[in-house]
Design brief:
Elements (H helix, E strand, L loop, with lengths): L1 H24 L9 E2 L4 E3 L19 E3 L7 E2 L12 E3 L7 E2 L12 E3 L7 E2 L12 E3 L7 E2 L8 E7 L7 E2 L8 E7 L6 E2 L8 E9 L5 E2 L8 E9 L2 E5 L8 E9 L2 E5 L2 E3 L5 E7 L2 E2 L8 E3 L3 E5 L2 E3 L4 H5 L8 H7 L1 E4 L20 H13 L1 H27 L4
Parallel strand pairs: 2-3, 3-5, 4-6, 5-7, 7-9, 8-10, 9-11, 10-12, 11-13, 12-14, 13-15, 15-17, 16-18, 17-19, 18-20, 19-22, 20-23, 21-24, 22-25, 26-27
Antiparallel strand pairs: 1-2
Protein name: Slit homolog 3 protein-like
Pfam families: LRR_5 (PF13306)
Keywords: Leucine-rich repeat, Repeat, Signal
């Protein structure tokens, strides 16, 4: 009996000893170029890596830093198997291509940082299908374009940063399938917004478009963009705003046009079906006064202040149009002249509008309109003349006959 107990106790000691030796001989997995601070935090910075060592990394890793290595291509499913990963940094690499679905299979991923790289294109589906991502940092790269559907199926994104990139063109459907974004900020210098470039971008808290240099805002530019808290178009040269530019833009709480230069507005229409709540038109320099029938605002609140308009013969059309918001007095007190030179910077209410003649085309149109009315007016005048002559003739006849 005693010997059996001793035997079992001895066996237990042997097993403990073997387990201890095994742990010493086989330490937790960690690539030799990396520092594993723990089984959840791994640093592989400046290690000269040319491949992502996925198979050597702990499957439990949550924070992974792979900065300043040599990864020219991030392949599809590049991090497959690291399902616990929450934060990933690829800053400072020579990345030139991110293949479609590069980050697939990372259900817990919250943050990706790819900054200070040579990445020139955000390719189709490269950031697709990220269901729980909170932030994607893509600033300070060489990105010139974002291809269509680059973020398809990605939701719940709080922050997408594209600042400090030489993006010159936003392609059609670039953000299609991207939804529930708190804040989206673009870099300066964008020169072309293709039709439908925001199509499919749904539910954005704040979308800022600033420091653009556009020859025009064309038909369908904002078509398909919906459910936006604040859409701010500011500090940009917008060129010519063409017909249909804002067609299909829906459910916007606040639409701001701030401190832009606008060569001309061929059309700016916001119908009731678009559900635009508030429009602020402030600090803009408009070089050509739009025609009355080219502007329409079916919005809850329209604010037009601190803008500069030409104070020439077209000013009468401006004061009769919808931008005055039914208050010429308030409009002229809160907006300024940009031309002629002697009026530049002066409040519009300092002008004597009666002394400014109407433009020839307005006078001609008015004359044509009054000439068309007239068929009835002329007939009435003619009838009055005939009656007057008849009465005069009868009176003269009565005098001649001695009846008076």
């Amino acid at each position: 009996m005693v010997s059996g107990v001793v035997w079992r106790f001895g066996l237990a000691l042997i097993l403990v000893h073997v387990a201890a030796l095994t742990m010493i001989a086989s330490p937790p997995s960690c690539p030799p170029e990396c520092i594993c601070l723990s089984q959840t935090q791994v640093l592989c910075n400046s290690g000269g890596l040319r491949e992502i060592p996925v198979k050597l990394l702990p499957a439990t890793v949550e924070h992974l830093s792979l900065t300043r290595n040599h990864f020219p291509v991030i392949r599809s499913d590049a991090f497959s198997g690291l399902r616990a990963l929450k934060k990933l940094s690829l800053d400072g690499n020579n990345i030139s291509i991110i293949k479609p679905f590069a980050f697939r299979g990372l259900p817990r991923l919250k943050e990706i940082s790819i900054q200070q790289t040579t990445l020139a294109t955000v390719a189709q589906f490269s950031f697709a299908g990220l269901q729980n991502i909170s932030a994607i940092y893509l600033s300070h790269n060489r990105i010139k374009k974002v291809e269509g559907y680059a973020f398809a199926g990605t939701t719940n994104l709080k922050l997408l940063v594209l600042s400090n990139n030489p993006i010159v063109k936003i392609e059609s459907n670039a953000f299609s399938g991207l939804s529930i974004v708190e804040r989206l900020t673009f870099p300066s210098g964008v020169r072309l917004l293709e039709p439908d470039c925001f199509n499919g971008l749904d539910t954005v808290g704040y979308l800022k478009l600033a420091y653009m240099d556009l020859p025009f805002v064309g038909n369908g530019t904002f078509r398909g963009l919906t459910n936006v808290g604040v859409l701010s178009i500011q500090e940009s040269d917008l060129g010519v705003i063409r017909p249909g530019a804002f067609e299909g833009l829906t459910f916007i709480n606040n639409l701001n046009f701030l401190n832009n230069k606008i060569d001309s507005i061929q059309e700016m229409m916001f119908g009731p079906e678009q559900r635009i709540r508030n429009v602020k038109f402030q600090g803009n320099h408009i070089l050509d006064i739009p025609k009355i029938d080219s502007i329409y605002f079916a919005v809850n609140k329209l604010t037009v202040i601190a803008n500069h308009f030409p104070c020439d013969c077209h000013i009468h059309a401006l004061l009769e149009g919808p931008l005055t918001n039914d208050s010429v007095y308030e409009f002229t007190a809160r907006n300024f002249c940009i031309s002629p030179l002697e009026y530049n910077g002066r409040p519009m209410n300092e002008l004597d509008f009666d002394s400014i003649g109407r433009c020839q085309e307005e006078v001609t149109r008015s004359n044509l309109e009054s000439r068309d009315l007239p068929s009835n007016t002329s007939k009435n005048n003619y009838s009055v003349l005939i009656v007057t002559l008849t009465i005069t003739t009868l009176a003269w006849t009565r005098i001649q006959l001695g009846l008076v």
